[in-house]
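Recall the central idea of this unit: under ordinary conditions, the amino acid sequence of a chain determines the structure it adopts. In this exercise we apply that idea directly, starting from the sequence alone.
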Amino acid sequence: KQLLLSGKKSHLALMNQYAHFKKMEHLVIITATYGQGEAPASAEKFIQLVKKNPQKQAFDFSVVGFGSTAYPNFCQFAYETHEALKEVNNSTALQEVFTVNDQSFESFNNWCSVWSEKMGLPIHLEKPKLVTTSKPASTFKVIHKAELPEDDTFLLSLKNLNGSKPVSGDLLSVVPAKGERERLYSIGKVNTDTLLISIRRHEKGLCSNYLHQLEHNEKLTATVVNNRNFHFPKYSKKTVFIATGTGIGPFLGMIQENIKRKEIHLYWGARTKDAFNLYKDYIETALQEGKLTDFKTAYSRQQSEKIYVQHLIQRDKELFLEVLKKKGCIMICGSIAMQKEVLQELQQLSSKYLGKDLSYYQNRRQIKMDCY
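Accordingly, the structure predicted from this sequence is:
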């Protein structure tokens, strides 16, 4: 908007849409970093596209990285993007990579001031008002905490004391301290008024440590955020859940709610078998009651050969192909690194055996994802 107000033409696109831009004089890249330094899903092809699409005219570029210093590989993909653009003929870096921690408006505004001065443009950004969700905050009471200290994970059972009516797969927005930004946790709803959230505790994690110190019967104020694209599919006769670590949380609720005993296959990955102890009672009860058809595990550090959930897809390819062919659903929850590997396996199966790109099934909502 500010560029247009200054009388400049501006084109906005995803990084995966990078192409030949005949009239481009200045390129601004704004990107996050996921997982262990990977590109976001909307930028996975960017570095290849930069090499494939050399611009004929000279242009300046600037890269702004968004991230959190609480995680390793802070803004790594922004630095990789900067290096890829530096190698391009006709390109000039207007400045070094600028990084923004924890969505800080002040920091982003600093970048904008420096950039607009170099461009000779009068750009003034207004601080955005905090977006409040339409749903009011609810009060929850801690009724149980199960912990696995050696794995830095714990399960919180929360009793819903008022208002909100979440569905498994929705998100719980928790603000750990005044002025801090929200953290989102996937919800598993195990009965009408009890929610489960599965949490990995980070050494310097403000929110995970705040939740960890909550005592039995202590109250928590949080907001339920509708995440309808990750609800259990009503019309799927056969569903596959794929999760790693704490990503199992929403699936525990979906399985508990499977009173019609639809066919559900759960694939779960962790480092060692000990990690399963946190979820054991829920899984064993569900198998006995027929709410869960089967449960397959992949432990990466239990044996000399590392096994991850994506390896099980190739082994059980007949099941996955049947689910895709017969309008079933595959739901993925956990790390973005795992999501990437799983999607690659599914893409290969889809292309080789079904003659279709995986996007065909994604567009039909047969693949649902909630990864972080």
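The chain has three domains: 2-119, 138-228, 232-371.
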